Amino acid sequence: MELNAVTIGFAVFTIFTLGGGFGVVTTRNLFQGTIWLMVSLFGVAGYFILLSAPFLAAVQILVYIGAIAILITFAVMLTRSVTRIKVRYIRLLPSFIGSLLVFLILLFGITVPIFGGQLPEAAPQTVASTRDLGAALVSEHGYVVPFMLASVLLTGAMIGAIFIARDEKA
Amino acid sequence: MDNLCTGLCTLLLDGGFDAGLAQFLSLLVGVLLVSGVPLITVILLIWVERKVAARIQDRIGPNRVGPIGLLQTLADMIKLLSKEDITPTSADRLLYNAAPLVSFASVVLIWAVIPFTPFHYGVDLEIGALYFVAIASFGTLAIMVAGWASNNKYALLGAFRVVALLVSYEVPLVFALLAPVMLAGSMSLLDIVNAQSGMWFVILSPLAFVIFYVSSQAETGRAPFDLIEAESELVAGFNIEYSGMKFGMFFAAEFLHVFTNGILMAILFFGGWMGPLYYESPLIAFAWLGAKGGLIYLTTLWLRNTVPRLRIDQIMAFNWKCLVPLSIANIVAVSLALKVLQELDLAPRQLIGAGIGEMLPTTVVMLLINGAIGLYLLGILRRRGQEARREFQAASQAYAAAPAD
Amino acid sequence: MNVLHEWAFIGVFAILAPVFPALPIVIARLFRPRKPNALKSSTYECGVETIGDTWVQFRVQYYIYGLIFLVFDVEMVFLFPWAAAYNEMSLFGFVAGFLFIFLLTDALFYAWKKNALDWK
Question: Which element (helix H / strand E) includes C102?
Answer without folding.
Answer: helix C91-113
